[in-house]
Amino acid sequence: MNLLDKVKKNNLSPQKREQVYHSLGIQELMNSFPSELSGGQRQRVAIAKALYSDPSTILEDEPTASLDSERAFEVMEMLRKVTTENNKTTIVVTHDTRLIDYCERCTALPMEDCNKNGKLNFIKFCCF
């Protein structure tokens, strides 16, 4: 994250950054290389990076894809909290229907292809 500070100013304060790391459970990973991380750990680091620059709009594409259910719900709760406490907009694109309860608004869009059962696949855009 230090490299990002050299490119862009007004990133998260050290205190808020530590809160994000703690809520994602990645504080002990800060000196690790990507090759040393599991898929779920990489996913959580990517979420921290997305939040680090303190954007007004947060776009998340399958943010919980590599996470177990407990961690997925923690991440969604954290995204909801960041969104509401900081007056941000968060857009989540996912196929995971477990996440719908975390969103204010959801839109299901049919995809062009069908799954193995001949049913249309849907992708869901959820907004906080």
UniProtKB/TrEMBL annotation:
Determine if Methyltransferase is one of this entry's keywords: no
Q: Name one GO molecular function term.
A: ATP binding
Lineage, top-rank taxon, reads Bacteria
List residues of the ABC transporter domain: 12-65
Q: Which InterPro entries does the protein's record reference?
A: ABC_transporter-like_ATP-bd, ABC_transpr_LolD-like, P-loop_NTPase
User: Is Transmembrane among this UniProt entry's keywords?
Assistant: no
Q: Which Pfam families match?
A: ABC_tran (PF00005)
Cell compartment(s), UniProt: Cell membrane
For this UniProt record, give its keywords in alphabetical order, as a comma-separated list.
ATP-binding, Cell membrane, Membrane, Nucleotide-binding
Tell me what this protein is called: ATP-binding cassette domain-containing protein
Q: Which organism is it from?
A: Mesobacillus maritimus
